[in-house]
Amino acid sequence: MIHRFFALIGLALMALATPSLAQEPLRIEIDNPNIEPLPFAVPNFIAETAAADQYAADLARVVAADLTGSGLFREIPSTAFISSVTSFDSPVQFSDWKAINAQALVTGSVSTAGDNQIVVKFRLFDVFSESQMGEGLQFVGSVNGWRRMAHKVADAVYSRITGEGAYFDSRLVYVSESGPKNARQKRIAIMDYDGANNQFLTTDQSIVLAPRFSPDGNRVIYTSYETGFPKIYMLDIGTVSRQIVADQPGTMSFAPRFAPDGQSVIYSLTTGSNTDLYKMGIGGGTPQQLTSDPTIETAPSFAPDGSQIVFESDRSGTPQLYVMPAGGGEATRISFGQGRYGTPVWSPRGDLIAFTKQNRGRFHIGVMNTDGSGERLLTASFLDEGPTWAPNGRVIMFTRESSGEGGSSTLYSVDISGRNLRPIQQGASDPNWSPLLQ
Amino acid sequence: MKTLPTAALLVAALGLSACSGGLFNQNRLDTDAAGAGAAGADGGITTGALAPNSVEYFNQTIGDRVLFAVDTSTLTDEGRATLTQQAGWLTTNPSFTAIIEGHADEQGTREYNLALGARRAAAVRDYLVSQGVPDARLRTVTFGKERPIEVCSTEVCYAKNRRAVTVIGAGAVS
Question: Which of A201, A250, A381, A398 has the smallest number of CB atoms closer than 10 Å to its CB?
């Protein structure tokens, strides 16, 4: 289901706490390599109407799961609580939370309103400073979107404590896989970033590959063998209607990705033995050829400002990464380490490029600066590939495939520090992370 | 020549080779080979030589596929020999068209393998054309690493998955 709105109202819920004395403000320095997860507590939200009761515990659980899942926070279980929060507006008993070393405390309330609406409020407290962090916020939305409200609460907590952009209120489009390795069935599917609300967008009749969101998150572009040959399709998520985008007779096209303005698509087009990069308006028209080498040029990705494209080419003899102007032209090689490089993806913050690296029989997901310096490998396994960035540019999701007859694909995420490697969804490949939802 | 399919070897081992001199008419292990269906869904064993103008003869006696070394699309001597026979069959059977499928093993990224599979298919198409098969009867498609026929993760399987398969069909190539 698409929840197209959230009235985000910055209700200046009054600050209850007195300013602190000698404490440093609560802060996670995310780039600190020796970071210790910050202990926090999220008591069940207070149900302010009877009908809201069913959400009170679930909201708190989703907030806690988001924060814990980031690897930067550690939840203190409710069994350790000394205080119980009985009213959203009651003063916080800071000494009780200090006693269990809850450095951050999130309190919330939920009430029902009108037709299928719920209202979620929250406050974040810096326990040891005995102060509220930021103003309280209130979210109003449909009951179906209750998980999104919890993600928004967690996003606010994450951003206030880390100073980083948010990413929990987001989705993934990916390829859902079933069946044996030599007859695998694939469907485009969409889900919340944490795996909830999974929904299939195509049937399993044709091979489908590598879906990518439009910049507004409302459409998906992907490769399908619906005609028997790889072609690029665009799908409207709301209506689940699809249309073919690139269809030149006698050619094959794949690896599409939207331009940051959403008005054009870059992709690989194969004519004969040669694969080059092209650009085409989403409404059709004549494709513009961006590369004209006799080698393989594929896996293009725009810089977030739209000025440059990073892509993969084997023009040097092995697959390596190159950057060129968005309109084509001279390309600069940026990968020089050992091994083969592929699937470069520019960070939404513009500062890094994530990639797949194959070296000595192992696969890695890594990141490098946009000039190729500062390469860091984040993972290693039999087969890792296809990174995608969280909206805040701090977390990467990718496909990990296990080896052998029973080999299967699982989505994993990892922080760009290399910490917090965790499985997200089994039987899944080719993830693409949406922008932060609106 | 290519190795016999596993099922045929098993049947032989079970002592059914009494029909010696006969050829086993059976499905290929491929699930995506459009030409396989004609070989009989019953998987039955028939005796007698295959008709030289049959698709089964093309698939089994000539061999419908050629294999490639890691990360290459260069035809081997053995591959060229098979393709020369394929070209002869296509020339003497002009009503048939063919789709050449290029495949890669699972080493490598999805996108690169798609492009690599296209190179392999094109190498086969170019060779068949050089042997006199009209280009208009041939079409290429890449499956990258999406359709392995062997599922282990060692070179034994990879070697068989790095292939280009000539799938015979009837009618005009669109």
Answer: A250
